[in-house]
């Protein structure tokens, strides 16, 4: 039997309550990926030492700032680095990450005004993983996963 490919997955998409609001974003179609991949659940924000729940944060320029003005950039970077370490440890070459997140978003993220507006951009972890050659998909791209 051929070895299965490893897929890094945002833990919230698998039902882990690690989102900023203490919730999750469980999607059954993500869990069904276990039929084809070895899944490694990650939450870069939790890996960076942030609790759930926590005040929301958005990317503002080169920083990640919470709605109450706290600069969380270093925690987001640490979480991204730890997610990358896990990808390397398990040999993941693809990642399925939560859209719009300041950690995991790819393509579009919230614009830093806490108004619900989206802007072109990538979350801290998504950007680092892509820089390291890992292909990043959002939950909206499940259908294109081989």
Level of helix content? Answer: 10-25%
Low-confidence stretches: none
Count helical runs.
4
N-to-C terminal Cα separation, in Å? 18 Å
Biggest sheet overview: 4 strands, parallel
Average pLDDT for all residues? 95
Description:
By secondary structure, the chain is of the alpha/beta class. It has a domain at 5-55 and 74-98 and 123-144: Rossmann fold (3-Layer(aba) Sandwich). Helices cover 23% and strands 23% of the residues. The chain is built from 4 helices and 8 strands; from the N terminus they run E-H-E-H-E-E-H-E-E-E-H-E. It has a 4-stranded parallel sheet with strand order 2-1-5-8. The chain is globular and about 45 Å long. The mean pLDDT is 95.
Q: Keywords for this structure?
A:
alpha/beta; two-stranded antiparallel sheet; four-stranded parallel β-sheet; single chain; Rossmann fold; 4 helices; 146 residues
